[in-house]
């Protein structure tokens, strides 16, 4: 399993355009109700944000300017699909492919055994989104299932789906159920998709990231963007944002990894002092347990959640603008 009163910032050489960037900022909370794992899409100057089920299946909000947000009534998703029991509808992500809007989302299998990734489509960004398949599009059940989808289109038009293998769901206890040895892998996977984004292309998914000791029990919440970089293979630097540690504790954070050798990596995680990007109290003192960051395909704007107070009972949406130092392979916000 997420894309305000915010300063207008622009980014250097993103997605085919070059802009000077002079400031860094976040704003929020811009949505004060529980709105975890947010993602967003911009269409014709309007913004649409989507969040984890808070009683509305897929809650959504709209903004005319990325500054002021209005939470809409109802759900953007009509149902979780025939393969799901409708529980654990988490961390949606929406991409536009041609004239169709494609939503990837997490939901629980009908037998309640595990969480997997579904796909739904709509003709308008706010929906309604209708499930497209009688089975999930990604469901590694024996490894713990799949959560936190992220849609991505490469420079050649190839569509991809990223997701987390939810290994900690079958862990052995402790922190986020994966703090007791043997630690179960929680890799981020990259799956090539069909031209319309609603099915895989039949190829096997590729692992592009996994946890290490510094990440605590897991990595999750992938969000991928590409940035023009003449020194990288193919002219693109790929930046993979992710969260690590446990969402319910103060160590939950947002970091990133970079690849100079194409979308499949290898990815190198940012290290101190340039990573993590966001953590409790740093670089903004009001943030507690910031995670679930989602970045726009243009690479400038982001949304993420942070806790109200010091518990995960209410995770509120914030916005921000990032700065990419292409030469230094680093990101700031």
Protein topology:
Elements: E1 25-31, E2 39-43, E3 46-50, E4 60-63, E5 70-71, E6 90-97, E7 100-108, E8 115-122, E9 130-131, E10 146-153, E11 159-165, E12 188-192, E13 206-209, E14 219-228, E15 236-244, E16 253-259, E17 268-269, E18 291-295, E19 301-307, E20 315-321, E21 323-325, E22 330-332
Antiparallel strand pairs: 1-20, 2-3, 3-4, 4-5, 6-7, 7-8, 8-9, 10-11, 11-12, 12-13, 14-15, 15-16, 16-17, 18-19, 19-20, 21-22
Provide a descriptive summary of the structure in words.
- Mean pLDDT is 93; it is low at 1-23.
- It is built from no helices and 22 strands.
- The protein has a 4-stranded antiparallel sheet, with no helix packed on it. It has a 4-stranded antiparallel sheet with strand order 2-3-4-5, with no helix packed on it.
- With 333 residues, it is mainly β.
Radius of gyration, whole Å: 18 Å
What series of H and E elements makes up the topology? Answer: EEEEEEEEEEEEEEEEEEEEEE
Percent in strands: 35-45%
* SS elements, strand count: 22
- Overall morphology: globular
Please tag this protein with its features:
333 residues, mainly beta, four-stranded antiparallel β-sheet, 22 strands, globular, disordered N terminus
């Amino acid at each position: 399993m997420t894309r305000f009163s915010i300063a207008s910032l622009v980014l250097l050489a993103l997605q085919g355009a070059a802009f000077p960037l002079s400031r860094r900022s976040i704003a929020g909370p811009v949505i004060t109700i529980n709105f975890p794992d947010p993602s967003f899409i911009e269409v014709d100057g309007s913004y649409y944000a989507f969040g984890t089920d808070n009683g509305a299946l897929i809650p959504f909000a709209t903004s005319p300017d990325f500054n002021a947000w209005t939470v809409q009534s109802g759900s953007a998703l009509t149902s979780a699909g025939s393969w799901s029991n409708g529980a654990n509808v988490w961390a949606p992500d929406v991409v536009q492919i041609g004239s169709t809007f494609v939503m990837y989302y997490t939901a629980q299998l009908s037998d309640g055994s595990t969480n997997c990734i579904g796909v739904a489509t709509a003709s308008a960004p706010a929906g309604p989104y209708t499930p497209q398949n009688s089975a999930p599009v990604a469901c590694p059940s024996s490894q713990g299932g799949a959560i936190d989808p992220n849609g991505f289109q490469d420079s050649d038009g190839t569509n991809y789906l990223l997701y987390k293998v939810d290994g900690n769901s079958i862990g052995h206890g402790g922190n986020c159920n994966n703090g007791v040895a043997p630690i179960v892998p929680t890799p981020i996977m990259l799956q090539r998709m069909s031209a319309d984004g609603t099915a895989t292309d039949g190829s096997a998914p590729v692992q592009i990231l996994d946890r290490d000791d510094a990440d605590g029990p897991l990595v999750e919440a992938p969000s991928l963007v590409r940035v023009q970089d003449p020194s990288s293979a193919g002219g693109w630097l790929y930046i993979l944002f992710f969260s690590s540690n446990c969402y319910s504790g103060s160590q939950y954070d947002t970091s990133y990894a970079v690849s100079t050798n194409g979308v499949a990596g290898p990815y190198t995680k940012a290290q101190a002092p340039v990573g993590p990007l966001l953590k409790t109290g740093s670089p903004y003192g009001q943030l507690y347990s910031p995670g679930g960051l989602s970045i726009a395909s243009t690479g400038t704007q982001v949304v993420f959640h942070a806790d109200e107070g010091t518990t995960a009972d209410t995770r509120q949406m914030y916005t921000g603008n990032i700065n990419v130092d292409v030469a230094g392979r680093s990101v700031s916000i």
